[in-house]
Give the backbone structure.
Amino acid sequence: MTRLAGLLLLVLAVAGLGAYVLETEPVWYERLRYPLRYEEFVTGHAENYRLEPELVAAMIYQESKFDPDARSSSGAVGLMQLLPETGQGIADRTGGDEWKPDDLLNPELNIRYGSWYLRHLLDKYGDEELALAAYNAGQGAVDGWRERGVGIQFPETRHYVHRVRELKQIYADAYPSELGLR
């Protein structure tokens, strides 16, 4: 075997191993790549709002990668990337009389409000896909699509829904005991 053929074989073997790890993603790899933080808030508010904790964790990862100080260019804040107007609306409906926009930087409150909002969307649309689409694109967009009898029209939102559902399974597989699944 020539030196070039040996090197090529080694490169292919390493690439194959990398592809295997990425394709099968063993639990240790999933835990390394997809951290779970604030699990007491995730599980507590998921239970309180009748949500799957793996869905809440997946949304937090997708929205902020568990960074409580995350801010988007559209003005969304915190772990679950809530707009201040959304936070105010939730506070008004849930008795948060002394609410202020900076409260969204508090991990516990952000997860509580994000979970409340997700439950609201699930109740309104009766469908996880539409609820996730509304969380990402807004209720007005989803209502308009439904009126026209069309599916999700924004490619970014279709990707968001697909990715959150993918992450939901990853979190269920990687953290079953932490999320109270087993």
